[in-house]
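User: Once you have settled down, look closely at the record that follows, taking as long as you need, and be ready to discuss the fold:
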Amino acid sequence: MEQALTREQLSSVLDNIDAVPFIYGVTEGRFLYLSGACEALFGRSRDEITAEPTMLTGMSREKAREVFTRMTRGHCSRTIQHSLRYRIHRPDGQSRWVDGRIALDVDDLSRIRRVSGVLYDVTERRKLEKELESKSRLAAVGMLAAGIVHEIGNPLAFISTRLQRLRAAEGPKLCRESVPLLLAQTERIQATLRRISSFEFGTDDGAALCDVPKLLAETIETLQLDPRSHKVAIEYRSQGECPKLFGVCDQLRQVFLNLGLNALDAMREGGRLTVETHVAGRCILVDFKDCGGGIPAAHIDRIFEPFFSGKPPGRNNMGLGLYLARTFVENHGGTLVCDSSPGGTHFRVTLPFED
């Protein structure tokens, strides 16, 4: 039969764990148990801490009494448990962060009779937490910056292409047609900058009734100005009348443009892009179908991830186009799905509308 550990054996075990267990008897006015590991954590001898027990809390005697008394208020149980995190300053000038799991044993009058607990040195853990927090913030800033580039890059490309055509054009007709289009693109940039300045990137700022066929017509005109479209026939088909839906027109325009540009990228050697709209129930369905080489099976499950791109290096491969497209569609309560094979890719946008 195994023999129970003696007090000395148990104390030896507790003194060598990576924590500081303790029991302080308030009635007795002394530690009933204090692990020797306290010396490594607090940088003081056990005798020093025994002489001034509040060293364990990093607080003065009066502050510790106030905190512990406050912990007992509103509790009916005889044992009250709390978690604390605080910083201590050691005699050698080092600061350490401590996590404490504290249990207060109180009597019928809510007077504390005993304080017990376990203290852990979490300095390194806190340092890692801060590093992770900093990296998360940097990632968020990077996402915002990449989104800015993507949001502003497309209208700037349109403006640049249209201005090149104007420079080579003869006659006023193209000028008259181009001015409102160019103004609309500059307003897109200004709206993006306004959202960024108010830290509302991707919100529903500017919600209004959106005419989906009109947005698609504008998108197709923009695509036809892109040099990649010279070998691609772009066809638009509308099966019946589409009702207007309430949403952010600029976000939907961005969705359609991203899907169209992806299709042009997939057909560098030429092909056909078919854009179709029809109504099913209380939803508008918009299909983008290309006859490119398709999306590799290894990539299909990741195409909506931020910063993922299957495009060759050197192209616009920031990897945000489809991520933003799906985000904007979901902002409208819709879905964006993809079906791809070696013979082409089909994206379907589903947008609900109300009567």
Summary: The mean pLDDT is 80. The longest strand covers residues 95-106. Residues 115 and 290 are 72 Å apart (CA to CA). The first helix runs from residue 7 to 15.
